[in-house]
Amino acid sequence: MKKIYENALAEYQKAIKADPENAQAYLNMSMAYRGLNNGRNSILAARKAHDLFQKKGDAAKAVEVRAKLRELYKTYDIKPEEFK
């Protein structure tokens, strides 16, 4: 299973390199990092996705990502303040 997440991560990184404003790729990357149990990078990618969805005016996706972020903070026992 680890290899699947690693391969997915590589694909999302390529997508982001091609389009740095690709919010969905950042969100998908966050889930791949979560699959690899890499909480910090999962949160960082989700935060970037949230910012990009907000920037694009996609409020529904921004709300969805905020919910995922709350779950990630709780799962990995990390406080949002640790990223400021």
Structure description:
With about 80 residues, this protein is mainly alpha-helical. The protein has one domain (about 1-84): Alpha Horseshoe (Serine Threonine Protein Phosphatase 5, Tetratricopeptide repeat). Helix content is about 75%, strand content about 0%. The protein has four helices and no strands. The protein has helices at about 1-20, 25-35, 40-55, 60-75. The mean pLDDT is about 95.
Summarize the structure.
This protein has 84 residues and is mainly alpha-helical. The protein contains 4 helices and no strands. The chain is globular and about 30 Å long.
Write the element-wise H/E pattern from the N-terminal end onward.
Answer: HHHH
Rg calculated over all Cα atoms? 12 Å
Please tally the helical runs, counting DSSP H or I stretches of 4 or more residues.
Answer: 4
- The name of the CATH topology is Serine Threonine Protein Phosphatase 5, Tetratricopeptide repeat
Layout of strands and helices, then pairs:
Layout: H1 2-18, H2 23-35, H3 39-56, H4 59-75
Label this structure with key terms.
84 residues, mainly alpha, Serine Threonine Protein Phosphatase 5, Tetratricopeptide repeat, 4 helices
